[in-house]
Specification:
The chain is mainly alpha-helical and 342 residues long. It contains 18 helices and no strands.
């Protein structure tokens, strides 16, 4: 049974859902000893109009740090600091409105506060505002506006923004895709060890888009991303060892990388891993295990997996078929790290 080829994944936009952990960074003006000062001291400063203290106090109420969670208090103190022009509080308010935890979700309000902070040079706010424009949430959907704000964050060294900007250029900003610009931003993020950017940059090298085609360079970056758990990079390493692309054919190595991606639920890896088990390449032949992985890939709509699952089923006993179905039922996809230590 043949295996599917490389998966490039270049034009898939990552969602980057905001997590409220980001709020902590916005409260970082309280560093060192101030970061652990007593609640009473913090409240006294906040009452005197200290915007940094108000921001930190709002954050503590939001997460319940030393005080019960109280979203009304979190909003009250954050709003005081935000209205005084403190960028960290403005960003926090934006994140609160975007998350909609404790009060109604309001993307327009989130965008308003992100913009105020971003205009003061806050990179987190610029990044978040760029994403809202990219998705058209609370603001007009605009790749040009998204790129403008993402670039502000990217130019300050934000690796996530650099990667997202690279993806925007891969899809096209104000016209056709610009893979040269895309490669530039992917590289900046990849050199900061941002795994998705490493995988995206590898895809450009594999296709020769925006850079000279170089599969060896692609494999270098895919390996870096795979070691950090990026499923489609793990899959592509498996393909390279399976097909002997710039490396010697090594089915055991192929199986290792396919399995890491397959366990994360990556359908093409599940399909290729099933083929290895069916053929006995790099692993003991096991048609039941092959049926399991074909079934899991088939559930995600991989046409080849559907066809091959039925082919394998015809060769199984009733007991084996039941066992394969049971294994598939018990499977739960889990995020994996890189390759296990040897």
């Amino acid at each position: 049974m043949p295996r599917p080829p490389f998966h490039f994944g270049l034009n898939l936009l990552r969602c980057f859902p905001l997590t409220l952990v980001l709020l902590c960074a916005a409260a970082c003006p309280l560093a060192g000893a101030d970061a652990v000062e007593s609640l009473g001291s913090l409240r006294a400063k906040a009452d005197q109009g200290d915007a940094a203290a108000q921001t930190a106090l709002g954050w503590r109420h939001y997460i319940g740090d030393g005080v019960p969670k109280n979203y009304a208090e979190a909003m009250k103190w954050s709003l005081k600091a935000a209205e005084a022009g403190f960028a960290g509080a403005q960003y926090n308010l934006g994140a609160m409105y975007e998350a909609g935890i404790g009060f109604a979700q309001d993307y327009a309000a989130a965008a308003q506060w992100y913009r105020k902070a971003a205009e003061q040079g806050d990179p987190d706010a610029a990044f978040s505002l760029g994403l809202l424009h990219d998705k058209g949430l609370g603001v007009p959907k605009s790749a040009t506006e998204a790129a403008k704000w993402l670039q502000k964050a990217a130019e300050k060294g934000d690796a996530e923004a650099q990667n997202q900007l690279g993806e925007l250029y891969s899809r096209g900003v104000g016209g056709l895709p610009n893979h040269v610009e895309s490669a530039k931003w992917y590289l900046k993020a990849a050199e900061q060890n941002f795994p998705e950017a490493q995988a995206n940059l590898a895809g450009l090298y594999a296709k020769g888009s925006g850079v000279k085609q170089d599969l060896a360079e692609a494999l270098k970056w895919w390996r870096k991303a795979a070691d950090q758990g990026v499923a489609w990079a793990q899959y592509n390493l498996g393909v390279a060892y399976d097909r002997g692309e710039t490396v010697a054919v090594d089915y055991k190595e192929a199986r290792k990388w396919y399995e890491l991606a397959a366990k994360q639920g990556f359908a093409e890896a599940q399909c290729n891993l099933a083929v290895l088990y069916f053929n006995g390449d790099g692993v003991e032949k096991d048609p039941v295990e092959a049926y399991k992985w074909f079934t899991l890939a088939a559930r995600q709509g991989v046409p080849k997996a559907i066809e091959d699952r039925d082919t394998v089923a015809d060769k199984l006993t009733v007991e084996q078929l039941f066992a394969g179905r049971q294994r598939a039922l018990e499977f739960v996809p889990r995020k994996t790290d890189g390759a296990p230590k040897r």
